[in-house]
Amino acid sequence: MRDASSGNASSDTMEVSDETQAPGARWVSQGGALVLELSGPWRGHRAPLPQPPQADAVEAVRFDAHALRSWDAALASSLWHQLEPLARRETPLDLQGLPAGLQQIVTLALDSASPARASAAAVPGPVTRVGARAAAAWAVRRKTLTFFGEVLMSLGRFMRGRSDMRASDLAWQIDQTGPRSLPIVSLVCFLVGLIVAYMGAAQLQRFGAQTYIADLVTVGVVREVAALLVGIVLAGRVGAAFAAQIGSMRANEEVDALATMGVNPVDFLVLPRVLALLIVGPLLTAFGALVGMAVGWLVAVGIYGVTPLEYVYASMEAITLPHVLVGLIKGTAYSVLVALAGCLQGMSAGRSAQAVGDATTAAVVQAIVWIVVVASVLTVVFQRLDF
User: Considering only CA atoms, which of 89, 87, 74 is closest in space to residue 41?
Assistant: First the structure.
């Protein structure tokens, strides 16, 4: 190793006794730039590259490889070790003088490993951030719409008798989502019905209108409260289970195995769950409404002195077919949304335990948001239709 200078050029040179058979490399200072000259055969050689001269102000680093006869990955690794500290200092690197293949390898290594470049890429401009967020939002919407389309196509195959869904799977899902949900639905509807009846009766008592407790509780529970409570309970109990089950199958590559065997995963996994909640949703809603009406009877009769027959008669007068249909339609819609949210997140989950947990959480949140949005829309629509 020796330092050589000629005129306004200085160099750090690595010499070998036989220059025709050994690789060569030297740093040359040209003006304010450093140039690394490579020569000879570098394939199979592990000779170290010379360190660049220390300079206070380096405008750029360039390369001259016109005399380079051959190279391999070892030279690319040595170049990366030399250039990575310069990249950290944000020194401009001009790799155009290197062979095309070597240039690509070094560029890729510097882009992936240099903290300076990584941090620069991690702080995009405001326009870039807005565009990235818009693209990500559209990708999520597109994935959701695609999933809805696949479910509709699966339903069409089922109606034509060409579905891969098994009747035993549907029966099992009905058992898991229906009868096993009755205890928690009963408890929640009882407590919320108690709150509605007690708070409403407390206000009606101020005007001596205790007889209207039945109208308040019956219409409120049958038309709105029961369906909303059933939807939220199913979101926490069933939607999360759907996402966890299907997400675990994706992590274990069972979904890919179904597709490999020619079984449509949407038919086999999603459709039974959607149909199960489509069936049990209105039934659970009707059951929750009955529980809410019963607790209203207890409050009116036990606390506010309304006679039992008077409450029953007022309830029967308040219940009309439109109220019942609205409650059942809303309960069915909320239940289907819970099934779609759980299956969507499960089918989109990653292949790790963390990803499955994230999908489970996202399924519950998405189902509740969808329920609230659809509840608002349906309420406005039914009120505008005077239904």
Answer: 74
Sign of the Cα pseudo-torsion (333, 335, 339, 344, in order): positive
Query: Using CA atoms, how far apart are residues 5 and 269, in angstroms rounded to an integer?
Result: 75
HEC states along 321-345? HHHHHHHHHHHHHHHHHHHHHHHHH
What digits encode the pLDDT tens for the residues 161-187? 889 999 999 999 999 999 999 999 999
CATH for the stretch 2-122 = 3.30.750
Task: Please report, as a single letter, which amino acid is at residue 274.
Answer: V
Give the residue extent of every domain in the chain: 2-122, 142-384
Among 268, 262, 277, CA closest to 166: 268
Sheet with 2-6: strands ordered across: 2-6, 9-14, 24-30, 33-41, 60-70
What is the residue-wise DSSP string for 121-187? HHS--HHHHHHHHHHHHHHHHHHHHHHHHHHHHHHHHHHTT-----HHHHHHHHHHHTGGGHHHHHH
d(C-alpha 78, C-alpha 61), whole Å: 15
The CA-based angle 180-177-151, given to 5 degrees, is: 175
Left, alpha or beta for 40 (phi > 0: left; psi -120 to 50: alpha)? Answer: left
Cα(354)–Cα(333) distance, integer angstroms: 30
Torsion angle of the four alpha carbons 126, 128, 133, 139, in this order, in degrees rounded to the nearest 10: 170
The residue ranges of DSSP E strands in 88-127, in sequence order, are: none
Rg (C-alpha) for the chain, rounded Å, is: 36
Q: What is the pLDDT of residues 327-375, one digit of tens each?
A: 999 999 999 999 999 999 999 988 888 889 999 999 999 999 999 999 9
Residues in the chain, how many?
387
The overall pTM is greater than 0.85: no
Q: Which residues pair with 64 in a beta bridge?
A: 37
